[in-house]
Design goal:
single chain; alpha/beta; DNA polymerase, domain 1; Beta Polymerase, domain 3; 7-stranded parallel β-sheet; 5-stranded mixed β-sheet; 24 helices; globular
Length: 588
């Protein structure tokens, strides 16, 4: 079993234990173990079999959890999970897909009302029976009816960050027009740059919460009001996305922004650090433990910090931590040591090294792509149309490719005719890794290229060792500069192919081959964990748009976010260098 499968199994165990009302610490142990395993790049099998390190050396993995990991590795099964499946009704798993229905609430519905399907849940809501169950009420019942479609329709799952970003920016712009709103910021997984976003969180500083919430309800994109309180409103917006607004005072704005940005794991670790210093942190601010009011709000005059995030971090002896790093891994330790990286910025990017034209499956011509790249402030690009294996994209054979390269030579001469050129166009190609091995264009052709991307588009269901061998063979080819979208995943559409990324990263480090962070919002491949592992191994990353149109050049920011989540600096990314610096790096 893969790390992802084992992490999912432990998360599933935690859900079932929580459903049964098991010990909260036992539930938390499985959830923490799932998070630890999910963040590993090296396989658990290699950890178990390696010398000098064992499963129990992993954070949060004791002897009991280690034995369960071994059972999953050896047999693909976990007896505890089989037992829990027999004890928990099958309907519970279906009901837990409804947003807002966690294991505890689902158990109440099953036990009190005998709910055994989503259809039965809808009927019970419409008959008014759900609101009579203790802990629910009319508003919760209405919310279930609003959200049950998400569990039924896969299209209503978490949406891509890029799509959520469009909604978030429009919403923030609308709320900043409210006269009573002094500060307006987005929070949650959108602010942390997660690949997908489930809902949007908004934090606003104001002394007039009613006016701010009224302004939100007047947003033209609002489709429904889900909940409204004294300082919080939840609405449904575009794409059926839930939007949660919190209105706070100035002295709490920074603390609230930090709290609602998350992640949960980051906040837990920050609160633990505060407790060690006799403090407590919540959405209202930082207070001394002995000065917290009964309802959790700070007693009047007791707030130590809270106006800005920087103040909150400073109160517990830390510098401000960028939101993209706040995932509860090693960011607090890095901050404590003064080792937080200066993360790469969009303005650091000098070139884009993966794009397509109408010569294959692009929508715009070579000239169009060059003009758009100049408009984006780039100093160099590589045109990397598909090689001949990708027949569905009318891939280039030797003759057509050399003809395109001649055109690029003439274009570069034209650009430099009146002085220093505004941009340099590199003669590139995206060659395909063939199922049987090798590349779809001969080395004698590739040797004439300025830039070669090697990608895998066919045979994605081959066994792990075969796919790994194909990729490592491409890495070892002296004419290949970078491996494009190395795991082949499409977010929410297609899982990554089964590849040993530890071996791929090791090969890239050995040969000096780059690995790509593909900025296409559906790909974002490499993911943040693999990109961080590549950095640790000394592998240089390239952030490329894989643009198939002039509009596609704009997704570079998505790749930048992924790189920031991986902790990458500008120096870790090859195309932050000048063209001369890039050529020096690749030895040309």
């Amino acid at each position: 079993m893969t790390n992802a499968q084992i992490a999912a199994a432990f998360d599933h165990v935690a859900d079932l234990l929580e459903y049964q009302g098991d010990n909260v610490f036992r539930v938390r142990a499985y959830r923490n173990a799932a998070r630890t395993i999910g963040s590993l790049v090296e396989s658990l099998a290699s950890v178990r079999g390696g010398s000098g390190r064992g499963l129990t050396d992993l954070d949060g993995i004791g002897a009991d959890l280690a034995s369960k990991i071994e059972s999953l590795l050896d047999t693909g099964r976990l007896p505890l999970l089989d037992e829990l499946h027999q004890q928990v009704p099958a309907a519970a798993f279906e009901l837990m897909r409804v947003p807002g229905l966690g294991p505890k609430k689902v158990k109440l519905l099953v036990d009190e009302l005998g709910i055994d399907s989503l259809e039965a849940l809808v009927l019970a809501c419409r008959e008014g029976r759900v609101e009579k169950v203790k802990g629910f009420g009319a508003k919760t019942q209405a919310a279930i009816l609003e959200n049950v479609g998400f569990a039924k329709d896969p299209a209503h799952s978490r949406i891509l960050w890029n799509e959520a970003d469009g909604i978030a920016r429009e919403l923030i712009d609308w709320m900043r027009r409210c006269p009573q709103a002094r500060q307006v910021e987005g929070a949650g997984s959108w602010r942390r740059g997660r690949e997908t976003v489930g809902d949007l969180d908004l934090v606003i500083e104001s002394d007039d919460a009613t006016a701010v919430m009224d302004h939100l309800e007047r947003w033209p994109e609002k489709t429904a009001v889900l909940q409204r309180g004294d300082t919080k409103t939840s609405i449904r917006g575009p794409r059926e996305m839930q939007i949660d607004l919190r209105v706070v005072t100035g002295e709490s704005f920074g603390a609230a922004l930090l709290y609602f940005t998350g992640s949960k794991e980051h906040n837990v670790r920050l609160r633990s650090r505060a407790r060690d210093r006799g403090l407590t942190i919540n959405e209202y601010g930082v207070q001394r433990l002995d000065a917290v009011a009964a309802e959790g709000r700070p007693a009047r005059g007791s707030c130590v910090a809270g106006r800005s995030e920087a103040d909150v971090y400073e109160a517990v002896g830390l510098p401000w931590i960028p939101p993209e790093l706040r995932e509860g891994t090693d960011e607090i330790a890095l901050a404590e040591r003064g080792d937080l990286p200066a993360l790469v910025e969009l303005t650091d990017i000098r070139g884009d090294l993966h794009m397509h034209t109408t010569a294959t499956d692009g929508e715009d011509t070579l000239g169009d792509m060059v003009r758009a790249a100049i408009d984006h402030g780039l100093s160099y690009i590589a045109i990397t149309d598909h090689g001949q294996r990708v027949t569905m994209a009318h891939g280039l054979d030797r003759t057509r490719l050399l003809r395109q390269w001649d055109e690029i030579d003439r274009l570069n001469e034209s650009l430099a005719a009146d002085g220093p050129p505004p941009i340099t166009v590199l003669k590139g190609i995206e060659v395909d890794m063939l199922e049987k091995g090798g590349l779809d264009l001969p080395d004698e052709v590739l040797a004439r290229a300025d830039w070669v991307v090697a990608s895998l588009h066919y045979g994605q269901n081959q066994p792990r060792d075969r796919i790994t061998a194909r990729i490592t063979e491409a890495i070892e080819n002296p004419h290949v500069h970078v491996i494009g979208h190395p795991t082949g995943r499409l977010i929410n559409r297609r899982p990554p192919y089964d590849v040993d990324m530890e071996a791929v990263i090791e090969a890239a480090a050995r040969t000096g081959t780059f690995l790509e962070i593909n900025a296409n919002p559906w790909r974002l491949d490499l993911d943040d964990k693999h990109a961080a592992a590549a950095k640790r191994a000394g592998v240089k990353l390239v952030i490329s748009t894989d643009a198939h149109s002039t509009g596609g050049l704009g997704v570079m920011r998505c790749g930048i976010l992924q790189a920031r989540r991986a902790g990458l600096r500008a120096a870790d990314v090859a195309n932050t260098r000048t063209l001369a610096g890039l050529r020096k790096l690749i030895g040309t």
